[in-house]
Design a protein that fits this description.
Length: about 100
């Protein structure tokens, strides 16, 4: 929940910042500041996209590790059942 709240606060901050940029673009000085801000926003967007890609890669690694563990568990179960069945085949009842 903290992550969601933090994201909401970040979005609110970004909205206020964008409103400020729009207001400043009414004058020549404001337009220059808006261009500079746009360059900063562009750089920040690239940074955010890189972080998102890192997060996606981490998620893929975690999913692969989980699936690997599942496959190994199933293989171990199959091997145990096969060993049990093989031992039962070789076991001769006493008459």
């Amino acid at each position: 929940m903290d992550t969601v709240d933090r994201q909401i606060r970040t979005l609110d901050f970004e909205d206020k910042h964008l409103d400020k940029i729009r207001d400043q673009s009414a004058s020549a000085v404001g337009q220059m500041q808006a261009l500079q801000s746009a360059n900063q926003i562009s750089a920040e967007m690239v940074s955010q996209l890189q972080k998102l890609r890192q997060l996606q890669m981490s998620e893929m690694v975690a999913q692969n590790a989980y699936m690997s563990a599942q496959i190994q568990d199933r293989a171990a179960e199959k091997a145990a059942v096969k060993a049990w069945l093989d031992s039962a085949k070789n076991h001769k009842p006493i008459n």
